[in-house]
C-alpha cells in the first residue's frame, strides 16, 4: 500500500501490465498483422521491417506478414507504380490463404468471419489497398484496420515529378489526359485512386464513375452497390485512420479521413456530412455507430512517423483478441534508436513526388 503511493503513474501502469500478463500460463496469442507498404517502397525494406519489429516489441509473438505483389523486392517496388490494383489485391488474397501461419489463425465464425483473423496496417496507398482486401477477400476477417496517410477518397491532382524521376514522369505522362482510359486504369497504380468531381455539384464525375479501375468500386460509389463490402467494413472492430497534419504529398490530405475537399476554395466536407456516410454506401456509418471509426492526426509531413506514435497505436489496437484491458494499459517500451529508416522512407517518397 505504502509502496504504491510512492510510484509514479507510468510505473504503476507498467507493473499492472506485467502482473495481468503473469498469471496465465498460456498468454493469449496476438492476432497476426498484415502490413502493406506505400508507393515506391518494397516489402523487404528496412523501414518496413522496423515497423514489424516494433509491433512485435509491443505485442511479443505477433506474426507479421509483409504484403507483396512479388517475392522479388525490386519487382514488388515496381508493382507499386505499375500494375492492375484489382489484380494485385486478388493475388494478395490468394497468397495469404497459402501462408501456413496465417491459415492457423482460423476464427470462430464471427460476423464477416472466414478462415483468417488478423489485424491490418497500411501505409499511404497500401491503406486503401488493404481496405480493398478487407472488402473483397473471402475468408479474411480483420479486427483492426489502421491506415496512415492513405487516400481513401482518392487524389485530385498528380504532383510534379522530380527532374530525374523518370519512373514518376513515365507514370504521369501515361495519365495525362488519358486518366480514364482502360490502358491507364489497368496499368498505372496511382491512376486507380485518382478521383475527380463535378465542380458545380461536388458529386463524383462521370469519367471517374465509369472509368476508375479500383477506387470507385471499393468505395461503393456506383449505382449498383456491393452489399458484402458494406458488411465487411461494418464488421471491423476498429478502423483507425491517421492523417498527417502537414501532408503535402497527398492532395488533399483529408482524403485519409474520407473527407471531400473543394478544389477551388479548399472547403473540407467531413465524412459524416457526405452522402456516402449518410446513406451508408460502405458500412462506415454502421461502424461509426458502434464506436469503431477512429479519426486520428499526427503532426508532420507525409509518413513522418516515429516509434512513440506507432507503439502507442499498436498497443491500443493490435495484440491478442481477448485482452481489452491490457491493451488499454500501454506497455512502456523503450525507443529503438532514432528511426532513420522512417526518414529514408520519407525521402524515397519525396523523390518519387507522385502520391503515395
Ligand atoms: C484489372 O484486373 C481485374 C481482375 O483481374 C480485371 O477484372 C480488370 O478487367 C482489369 N482492369 C483493367 C482495366 O485491365
Ligand atoms: C455537372 O453537373 C451539372 C448538373 O448535373 C451538369 O449540368 C454538368 O454538365 C456537369 N458538368 C460536367 C463537367 O460533367
Ligand atoms: C467550390 O468552391 C467554389 C468557390 O467557392 C464554389 O463556387 C463551388 O460551388 C464549390 N463547389 C461545391 C461543389 O460546393
TrEMBL record:
GO-annotated molecular function: palmitoyl-(protein) hydrolase activity
Entries under SUPFAM superfamilies matching the protein: alpha/beta-Hydrolases
Matches recorded under InterPro entries: AB_hydrolase_fold (IPR029058)
Enzyme Commission numbers on file: 3.1.2.22
Record-linked Gene3D superfamilies: alpha/beta hydrolase
Signal sequence interval, chain numbering: 1-21
Enzyme class (EC, first level): hydrolase
Keyword terms, alphabetized: Glycoprotein, Hydrolase, Signal
One Pfam family it belongs to: Palm_thioest
Similarity remark: Belongs to the palmitoyl-protein thioesterase family.
UniProt name for this protein: palmitoyl-protein hydrolase
Organism placement in taxonomy: Eukaryota, Fungi, Dikarya, Ascomycota, Pezizomycotina
Amino acid at each position: 500500500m505504502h509502496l504504491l503511493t510512492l510510484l509514479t503513474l507510468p510505473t504503476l501502469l507498467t507493473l499492472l501490465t506485467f502482473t495481468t500478463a503473469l498469471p496465465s500460463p498460456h498468454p493469449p496469442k496476438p492476432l497476426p498483422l498484415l502490413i502493406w507498404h506505400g508507393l515506391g517502397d518494397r516489402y523487404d525494406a528496412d523501414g518496413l521491417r522496423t515497423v514489424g519489429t516494433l509491433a512485435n516489441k509491443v505485442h511479443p509473438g505477433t506474426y507479421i506478414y509483409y504484403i507483396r505483389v512479388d517475392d522479388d523486392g525490386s519487382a514488388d517496388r515496381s508493382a507499386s507504380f505499375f500494375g492492375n490494383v484489382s489484380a494485385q489485391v486478388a493475388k494478395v488474397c490468394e497468397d495469404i490463404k497459402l501462408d501456413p501461419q496465417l491459415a492457423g489463425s482460423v476464427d470462430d465464425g464471427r460476423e464477416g468471419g472466414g478462415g483468417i483473423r488478423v489485424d491490418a496496417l497500411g501505409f499511404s496507398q497500401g491503406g486503401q489497398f488493404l481496405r480493398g482486401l478487407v472488402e473483397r477477400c473471402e475468408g479474411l476477417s480483420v479486427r483492426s484496420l489502421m491506415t496512415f496517410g492513405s487516400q481513401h477518397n482518392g487524389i485530385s491532382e498528380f504532383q510534379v515529378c522530380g527532374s530525374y524521376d523518370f519512373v514518376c514522369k513515365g507514370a504521369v505522362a501515361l495519365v495525362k489526359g488519358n486518366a480514364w482510359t482502360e490502358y491507364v486504369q489497368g496499368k498505372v497504380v496511382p491512376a486507380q485512386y485518382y478521383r475527380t468531381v463535378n465542380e458545380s455539384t461536388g458529386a463524383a464525375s462521370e469519367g471517374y464513375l465509369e472509368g476508375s479501375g479500383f477506387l470507385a468500386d471499393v468505395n461503393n460509389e456506383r449505382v449498383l452497390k456491393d452489399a458484402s463490402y458494406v458488411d465487411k467494413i461494418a464488421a471491423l472492430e476498429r478502423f483507425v485512420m491517421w492523417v498527417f497534419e502537414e501532408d503535402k504529398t497527398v492532395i488533399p490530405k483529408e482524403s485519409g479521413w474520407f473527407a471531400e475537399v473543394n478544389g477551388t476554395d479548399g472547403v473540407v466536407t467531413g465524412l459524416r456530412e457526405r452522402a456516402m456516410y449518410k446513406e451508408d454506401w460502405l458500412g462506415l456509418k454502421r461502424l461509426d455507430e458502434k464506436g469503431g471509426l477512429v479519426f486520428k492526426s499526427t503532426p508532420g509531413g507525409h509518413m513522418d512517423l516515429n516509434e512513440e506514435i506507432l507503439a502507442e497505436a499498436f498497443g491500443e489496437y493490435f495484440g491478442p483478441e481477448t485482452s481489452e484491458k491490457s491493451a488499454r494499459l500501454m506497455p512502456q517500451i523503450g525507443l529503438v534508436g532514432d528511426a532513420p529508416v522512417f526518414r529514408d522512407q520519407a525521402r524515397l517518397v519525396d523523390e518519387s513526388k507522385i502520391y503515395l
